[in-house]
Structure formats: C-alpha cells, structure tokens
Amino acid sequence: MEKFVHLDHVDVKFSTKKGVYHALSNINLSIDQGQFVTLIGHSGCGKSTLLNIIAGLQDATEGAALCAGREIKGPGPERAVVFQNHSLLPWLTCYDNIYLGVERVFGAKEGKAKLKERTLAALDLVGLSHAEHKRPNEISGGMKQRVGIARALAMEPKILLMDEPFGALDALTRAHLQDELMKIVAATNSTVVMVTHDVDEAVLLSDRIVMLTNGPAATIGEILTVDLAKPRDRLALANDPHYHHIRSKVLEFLYQRQMRPAAA
Ligand SMILES: Nc1ncnc2c1ncn2[C@@H]1O[C@H](COP(=O)(O)OP(=O)(O)OP(=O)(O)O)[C@@H](O)[C@H]1O
C-alpha cells in the first residue's frame, strides 16, 4: 500500500521572545491511503502543529515530511484543510464558497459546466443541496462545517486534514456530522488526519489513534489500532466491550501516563 504521508524524525522548534520553544520531537509516522488517523493529546501538546506540517502550513525544523512520495513544501490542493471555524467567505453563498475552491483546482482544465457539476455534487454529498443560495450567516454552525467539508472534498484532495472540525458544535450536531463523515469517507475512500480532544470521537472514527505525549518536545507516545468492524454504529458500540476496552486505553494514556501538570 502506498504511504500517503510519511514523517521521518520530524522536530519543530519555534523562536519566541523567551527563546526557542521545542514543540515536537522525533515524530515518525506513516499513513496509508484510505486510513483515518486521529491525533489526540492534552491541550498545547502539538496536535495542530503536527497537522500543519502535513498541510504544509508549518515547516519542520528537522526531519522530512513527505506526501505521496514528494516533499511537503507548502500548502497544496491535494491536502485540503478543514478548521474548527469553517472559514467560509461571508459574502458568498454556500455554492460560491465551494465553487471558488473547485475553480482554483480544476479551473485551468475544465469548463464551467463541469465545475458547476462538481460543486453541486459536493453540496449533495453533505446533504446541503437545499442551501446552495444561502450565505454563511443564514445557516447553522453545523451546516457551515458541512459546507467547509464539502469545499475540501470538492477539491478531491489526496488527504483531508481536519483540525477539531466539530469542536465548536453541540453534542447532537457533532454526533450527526460524525455519522455523515463516516459515510462520506467510506464512499470516497478518503485518507483523513483529524485532530480531536474527544476520546469517543477518536475511537468511533479512527483506524489508528496517534497519542501524543505532553510538551515541550512532545512526541508520539503510542499508536493504537482501532480494529472495530466498519461501518460503525454508535449505538451498537455503546454495548460493545471491545469498544470500551479501546476507549479505556486512550483514557489511561491521557489521564494516567500523561497527566497534565497542574501549572500547564
Ligand atoms: N507560531 C508559534 N510560535 C511559538 N510557539 C508556538 C507557535 N505555534 C504553536 N506554538 C506552541 O507549540 C505548542 C503546541 O501548539 P499546538 O497548537 O500545536 O498544540 P495543540 O495540541 O494543537 O493545542 P490545543 O489542543 O490547545 O489546540 C504550544 O505550546 C504552543 O504554544
């Protein structure tokens, strides 16, 4: 299987007013095509920094970061990012927000009819065909996140990178979007890397959970394989002893082995 992402001895150091801050140390991680990987760890440990390395928004100070065999040198349409705060352009409709991304990626090669078809298909994929003419301030937070996901998916990225995409949503909307995301990922065979704070979300969605130690110089403490059959159903999992076993392993890592220092 092709290694879509390969991080080899990656270190990240930030220059700050107080001197150099060593954020990430010796990160080694390979991700296969079609895999769903979550990054979990205490606040400030470096999850977003790690995601940003793959996104090309942050350079590694040392080590190598590769995507599809090529060095990651900056952001690219093959690595689409979805942030917690949707980042839609408020003056554009849902349709136009997606169309803009589609045009940027495919505009040089494809005609307007094809670009329109791609945009409508993306809206349909997230169940928002009815909202195509609405502007971001006319739709709910969950719908905005769905437009953000649709925009990312419409660019047909090789990898979907998500930084706490559901973090700002209420529990019910969050559960609904997790279910939708599972269906979309299954239908598109997407490779996904997602930052989350939510242990249940990590177990429900992941093939592998990458657990980071506390910073400074955070590194990968352990990678847990989630070998629960797919498709996954949250209600059935609630009564599945294996689900609870995996869940408690993550909790044990976070709250016994990586107890967050009180002063942090
Ligand atoms: N540009 C920067 N300059 C200096 N320090 C930075 C910079 N970006 C991040 N850091 C520091 O690096 C560490 C990791 O930050 P990061 O945002 O990756 O953590 P995180 O695990 O995503 O946190 P959270 O869960 O709270 O979002 C933090 O201590 C942060 O203060």
UniProtKB/TrEMBL annotation:
<keyword id="KW-0813">Transport</keyword>
<dbReference type="InterPro" id="IPR017871">
    <property type="entry name" value="ABC_transporter-like_CS"/>
</dbReference>
<dbReference type="InterPro" id="IPR027417">
    <property type="entry name" value="P-loop_NTPase"/>
</dbReference>
<protein>
    <submittedName>
        <fullName>Nitrate ABC transporter ATP-binding protein</fullName>
    </submittedName>
</protein>
<feature type="domain" description="ABC transporter">
    <location>
        <begin position="7"/>
        <end position="239"/>
    </location>
</feature>
<dbReference type="GO" id="GO:0016887">
    <property type="term" value="F:ATP hydrolysis activity"/>
</dbReference>
<comment type="similarity">
    <text>Belongs to the ABC transporter superfamily.</text>
</comment>
<dbReference type="InterPro" id="IPR003593">
    <property type="entry name" value="AAA+_ATPase"/>
</dbReference>
<dbReference type="GO" id="GO:0005886">
    <property type="term" value="C:plasma membrane"/>
</dbReference>
<dbReference type="Pfam" id="PF00005">
    <property type="entry name" value="ABC_tran"/>
</dbReference>
<dbReference type="InterPro" id="IPR003439">
    <property type="entry name" value="ABC_transporter-like_ATP-bd"/>
</dbReference>
<keyword id="KW-0472">Membrane</keyword>
<keyword id="KW-0067">ATP-binding</keyword>
<dbReference type="InterPro" id="IPR050166">
    <property type="entry name" value="ABC_transporter_ATP-bind"/>
</dbReference>
<dbReference type="GO" id="GO:0005524">
    <property type="term" value="F:ATP binding"/>
</dbReference>
<keyword id="KW-1003">Cell membrane</keyword>
<dbReference type="InterPro" id="IPR005890">
    <property type="entry name" value="NO3_transporter_ATP-bd-like"/>
</dbReference>
<dbReference type="GO" id="GO:0015112">
    <property type="term" value="F:nitrate transmembrane transporter activity"/>
</dbReference>
<keyword id="KW-0547">Nucleotide-binding</keyword>
